[in-house]
Fold each of these.
Amino acid sequence: MVKKLDKFPILFFLFLSGILIFCWFRFGLMYGGGDTGLPTYNPLFTATKIASNIWWDSLAPGIPVAQGLTSVPMLFLLSIPQVLGASPVVIQALLFFVLLFLMGYGMHLLALSIFGKPNYLLAISAGVFYLFNPYMMIQIWHRFIHNSMFFVAFLPFLIMTWLWWIRKRSPVCLLLFLLVNFLAVYVYGTIAFIVPVWTLLFFLTLLEGVVPWKGRKNALRLLLAFLIGCFFWLLTNSWWLIPTFSVSPALFASVHTTDGSLNTLMSLSNSSILPYTLRLVNPFYLYWLADWGSIYQNPIFLIISWLFVPVVFIGFIRGLKQTQYVVWSLLLLVVIYLSKGAAPPFNFPYIWGFSHFFPLGVIRNPFEKLGIILPLVYAILFSVGLQYLLITSIKFIGKSKTYFLLIIFICLHMAFFWPMFAGKLFGTMEKQNFVEVPPSYTEANNWIKQDLSGTAEGRILHLPLPRSESVTYNWGYGYNGVEPSAAIFTALPSIARGLDIPGVNDALSGLSLIFHKPYAENNQFVILKMLQDFNVKYIILHKDIRWLGGELYNPLETETVLDNLDFLDRETTFGDLTIYKLKDSYFSPKIKLINNIQYYISPENNTYWPLWLSSDNVELLSSLKTDTKNLLIKYGTEMIVSPEIVFKYIPQEVIREKLLVEMPVVRILPDSPLYPSVRLKENLQYSSLPAVEKFSFKVTLAGKRLIECYLLKEKGSAKSIIPQLREYQQMLPEIKEGVELRVSGKEGVKEISINFILARHLATLKLIGEKTNNQEKIVAEEVFNKLINFLKDTNVVPNSSIIEGENLPNVDRLISKFNLPFSGKYELLQAHQQIKNIYPNKLDTNRFQINNELKKSTGSLKGDFISYGLFDLPEGFNEISFNSIPSINLAKITDSFTKGNVKKANDEIELNSGLHDSSYIDINVDPVYGGNWYRLTFDSWIKLGNRFRIQILQDIDPYNPINPTEKLPLYDSDFSKDPYINHWVSQTYNFHISPTTTKVIIRLEVEPWDGCTVTQSSKKLCMNKDFSYQFERLSQVTLRNIRVVTFLTNPLFLQSKLSEPINTFAGEINFIQKNIVSYSGKVRISKSTWMLFKESFDPGWELSLIRNKEIYKPSQHLIANLFANVWLIEQPGDYDFVLKYSPQKFIKVGMVFAGLGLVIVLIFVVGYNFRRLIFKK
Amino acid sequence: MRSRIYSILKSVLFFTISFVVFYILEYGFTFNLWDKLLSPFLLSGLMIVMFLKPSTKRCMLVLVGVCFVIMILAYFFNFLDFSNRLSSFGFSLLIVTIFLYLPQIIKEGYIKKF
């Protein structure tokens, strides 16, 4: 009987898991997409060729993904059924089955250890609750993050083994804990999960020692156990910890910032307020996106969602009264507090922590990262509460009625989790995330494998190339998520998506756009150059890609481009895939020697797409170091310099009378006895502010110091203003960084312009100077000059004052600052982008202010640039500015299309709606320049009705799925009538078009006046079109002076010739690729030469040259073609070389430590058992 | 008389300190939020009451329960903001109450009697 009882839970959870798996996989299809992609599609390949290395070359041109190592054990286990012939569907179903079983049964075992063996039914209820709760359904399964699935599956085992360890302190328990961690290591693929694991283990240990307090000795023993457990955990996980923390922090810091993490935390706080957190609900998916429809907003479902909360609360209260459960009750409070993040109450410590500790950014979604512990704690307390309710209920209403209520309770809850049984869990109501990779993909991959015939050189470029990580394909069941080509195309690495490395992503953006208008026109050589730069051998054109509504372009247009390229052969077609191959004579190997180099001096934050800068026979080199002067002089043939900073300058007009109103308000002056308390308050407030708010506050304080000075003088106070002026002066360096960020446009988009504020500071200082004399006047003037220099240093104002007459009213001045390595002749170039014809004089001449001189230059086309001639420029900073003039009117009104009652007379267009129909006019914008800002200006007069509508229709806008003839534009705005103005109103509307847009139409539409919303008190009634129909009336709008302009903002470059290009090759190179992270070969050079390696630039790539058993490591490691690696080999001669990704060694180092840790634990286990044996004898 | 004055002064001091602590925990060092003083004020007041009369802790737990019930009702009738504020207050009161039970929990290992 006892044995039957032991078997029953196993069978029960196997059965339950089986039912769920049947419900999910009865269609015979795999699930995929989202942030995860297709992790179980080809586990053998992924484990052996991708994840077992830090460097992932399959995501070409390569990226370090150290935490991918954690997926190797899981992938290895999944490769077993794959080798036995299981399909990806079966592999995924098997994985989910095992995870479901582990979740349910693991929770049961943990609950059993807490409740005791007699309460095995209660433990089963805990297991069932753990499987079926809103958090699991939404945040784990629906969200489809596999690391989370592993986390929840193994968490009960982690806790159980940890509790055994800290209670018994037996090495066997420690070994078990470490073994469970090894099996669960995939959890740490999301590095942030280290935090919830160790937070939970810490609190469990703390509460074990403190509740109740068993004495200092016991506490110390627990502390020791904790430290030992932590130490061995670190040791046995070093095989992935060491590589991850050697590589990832730098990458993480380049992608994420403290401010970004804080912003994410704050924006997510609305979805983690207590009414949601207590119900374990993520409202984003359940209510706001309503992935399962609006049924969850139905009152009955709302009631159901609250039903278990009081049970848990009862369990919480009951738990406080029993020693075996009190820990879980206390843990509940802690976990709820941590999970709600920046939502109240007591959220200030959270926000403060995020503002001041960058590493906390890993848990910037606390509900997802820390709330994952909630279901486990809830499961235990739910069972406790349920037990109490059942006992009480049986006492009062009897067994049968109690069980009847229990059945209703269970049925209601199971109704809540209907998506889990209906197989609608993954995806939305309308569309499940089924994935069926078309057979054409396998066929294409096999064809490439065969064509390669054993060689493995080159890459596959997938077009259209997405510039982000995600893509949408029109497969049989669709696909939306992380681009999956790396797992599908195993023949060669794939360039199939953007990578999360800022510089490399720019290069990939260029590679994407070069195959699209207008860049693809007349740029064959640049296309070939870029294909060679990226080591491309095959191009696969995906006609099944969904390009509308995104950043991509029509693949049919790309097909035309590819068909016309002489250096490509159109090989074959499989389904929607067409394979092109680069002719062998044009193919460029991954490692090669180069001579002709063009230096590209680009500051860190200014990168330009290489399609502007690529030249057909020159490599572009840039350096992360600032001092490259010697290299330039010795080895460069040409140099291109991009500006260190570019900013818009708009002279500020300050009206004296309004100045005090525009400056911060000051009530208490320095001569008041209350002033010290004001300063104390300011200091306290400043110290507590998050980093994002500190800058604005500091600027306000600076303004306050100036106003205090002014008001003191105005008042005639005897108090000196020198301390205030000095304090203001000291604040300037403190706000410098913030000012520079705002000038560069990286921050402060929604703030008042810093130029506006500082112009007022300047004006206030001038006023102060006029009101002071003697020493105070001297100091005021000194501070005034310091501020002017500060404004110049921070690029708020140009270094050289704009020459009188050069500033045009309402026209921005674009200032470019170049930092030149030496003086000499430089050619001034402006990126062309086919814009000449839309500006006055077709930009044949343009006026530039170069430092303090005005130059009127003639422009001539030079490839992709407009050249304005040569200029002598000194070394150091040089400033070149020009007016960002508006173009000619790009609105083609004469070619416009109209619908409805539209009258054109003289310059005016009158739009009259019908009683129930709208009227509109479609105005073409021509020409169109993707990626530009445009401004629409017009006068409007709403004569009847109260509004009209503007839509900017781009050819890349998606179609409305409900009404396929209608587009869903990004820009769709209403202009409402001001009831006090019944005349012409000037309107301005700015819009930005996608880089891949080639056609833009401006639709100005007038719809019938909706009288329903004005006359009816119930607005809900008006949503019924049949009802609101009767209240519609005519509308009339007249428009005139419609203009669409763009502004001249094309970037400037300076080019300088250094020496004559070298036409003869100075060397030979042969190499083999040993593995993904190691290349070796021979190189022979007769003079100083550069070695180019076409993987993404990473300082971890190291070149070693071996000659006569001596090893040389080149000192110059630069960036080539904006993404790749290049080394300078200075000494001619014959060398053997080895090119390695050095962080790969951390895996071996880590494995040594891990093995050591395991051996030590095993020794302890053997020793412990041996001692026990002897002791028994 | 003297001890009564001391007791009152102690309570006032304790109230002030706890008020400041709760205010900072909630809003940091921003001192312009005059309209948001109610919650820290109430919390401090209730904390003082529980401190002076430990038997009221049980009532506070009932109050927490009432807050959560009203929170559910408010949520149900679409008063999300009110529901959020009430749940925040209820949860903070719960934390304070359990915090005051901590000595007993640490000593006995559970709460013998509410």
Amino acid sequence: MQLTGLPGMCHAVVGENGAGKSTLMKILSGVVRPDRGRIVKDGEDLKLHHPLDARHAGISTIFQEFSLLPNLSVAENLFLGREGDIGHAMTRAELAQRSEQALSELELNIAPDRRVGSLGVGQQQMVEITKGVLADASVFIFDEPTAALASHEVDVLFALIERLKDEGKTIFYVSHRLAEIFTLCDDITIMKDGEFVRCVPTALTNEDEVIEGMVGRPIAELFEARAASIGPVLLEAKGYQGQAMKRPVDLTVGTGEIVGVAGLEAQGQQELMRALAGFDQRRGGSLTLQGKDISDIEARKRIAAGIGLVPESRKDDGLFLSLDIADNMQSAQVARGGLFALTPSLGELTRDIMTRLAVKAPDARTPVSDLSGGNQQKVVLGRWLLAGAHVLLCEEPTRGVDIGAKREIYRQLRAFAQQGNGILVTSRELTELIGLCDRLLVIRDGGIVSDVPAEGATEDSLLRAALPTSLDGGQTEAA
Amino acid sequence: MTRSLRNLPPAFWGLIAVGVLAAFTQPQFLSLPFLMILLRQAASIGIVALGQTFVVANRSLDLSVGANIAFVNLILAHAMWSGYHPFVAIVVALAAGTFIGFANGVLVTKLRASAVVVTLGTAAIITGIGFLYTGGAPGSSISDLVKWLGRGRVGIVPVAGLVWLGFAIAAFIIMRRLALGRFIYAAGDNPFAALFSGLPVDRTLLASHTLCGFFAASGGVLLSGLIGVGSINLGADYVLSSITAVILGGAVFGGGAGGAVGTVLGTALLVTVLNLLTVFGVGEPGKLIMQGLVIAAAAIIYQQGRRNG
């Protein structure tokens, strides 16, 4: 394995789950010892036997789990264990003043006397970075830093990383999210199965090439063949509008069809999906499922009629994390019975679906919290296979899932559609939508502005439709 | 095998430890007659704790079980039932207790209010109504049927113990064999995921509170029979002990865990420990502190789990 970081550069490390990215980062931060090979910094051989060695060598690592003490204040955390470097115990006032200064130098708006435990994930991460800056680190390692962040927090993080680059720091950035890497990083190192594949400057490559390197095969093979023919309409919305939707929407999903909803961030994708699933009061229009009017029935009954929702946030809205695979997969099916119905015996069906989806777990009694993101997503999909849904409303089906599991999920979605069902899917990744779907809708400001076959669609044409025209651009800004 | 060991509630190991301790220090503690006395004493708290299990697994709490028991006791002890079959008083008392649970459930689901606040409020209201109903002087007309339920024996086995067993089986079936049990664990673990799976989240919570009311009232009937008279503020300590028993049985604040078997073991452990403490000469203050520590520890473990999870 080889990896070279240059001052003022952001170097991305990508690969499938299990490719060895995190292990490599742990070696650099002294958590794991290398079996062989050398780590050289500023021409000097480093022997990193302990995380402290790495810290003294000026390497600061921001893991997904922070090393902050939640019950201490921001200021106390920043200077914890550094009394020695400063030479004397600091007074409260001095502590506050120094912290204030450090935070404001990074243009961070965090009160130094706040308890760290009361901060959001994004702000805790900022504190962790500030700590690294204070320790005068010259190398910063980020391991999936945006996994738990909201989009506005991501912006703050990126601004901060840009600052670090400007100050000549070296940055290693591990992430699944290629879009982030292409906006932020200068070089990309691709790993596969614990080995170095290649290192390329970002400017000389594109997402498809990187994915091909990670998967080891051409990108076209990631996706299944599109539907040969589309059957009768399964789900049809006519002028349908929920309370939270800005505009009424017309759309259809045919038998065997996967329809994608593309659009910029927060253009009403989620509102649309939740309204169709019945989790939002209807304001107007009609909705039919297999020719049956379901406009006025509540979510539970829509689900019983054959609609399934795969929510975007798996952990917050999709899974029962303290329960096992069987309980998670069977929930929608069991929900169809009354409170005092006997629980049906679904063990065999559950095992069948686990095999069909290739869920990697010893058995159905494995807690879902033990599974990887990809396998967790399969469990949520399996819930709707088990419940016999006909139309799947799928939000961001591959969020936080590695490339191998993505491919598996694409395959399963296509197989589901082929069995006489339909899927409506939203995604931030345009390549994914183009490869996966039969037809694409573009949503802008709550309205559907384009409806084109996915075959032949390009990211360019979709983006053009998704971007506000100069005329209504001003309105969006104002809103 | 390892997984089933890991899934055993803390009370299981606690009972083994306490059993060993008792065998070495107080061997008479483990004699059959004495264990039967413990069983009789544990039955009422055991049933109340089973009721509490439903709401705790459903990410809720019922602080009105004590007031519920007191109210049931006042009804059973009131002179107005003297002309009727003893059965009538029991049915009325159970209906009242069940209604208290139902009212808690309605308030918690419709008002989206905190269960702690709601059930604390209903507890105060019921206590007030109880004072009005009895004029502050509880009756002493508890029927022989109720007394038999609380104190009687079949052979050497206390009737109360058999009743407890019946309720434990019912609770087990509800939690493990009925859809309601699945709903309770699911909605307790993640109400949002439950909603998006099509679960009747509100009705589940309503049902678990109603069941808790019914179980609390049933525990109240046994306790009234054991005490044999009407008594203001009977069962006040059952709020704390029922929660302690549920937690020893492996439930966690925040829902999604616990169960009938766990709660039975938790109750057994709690009652055994409380009696052992008496034998060792530890008084009420020490027992209260012990129960408080168990709940505090559970709360800390829950917080830690949330931070890591």
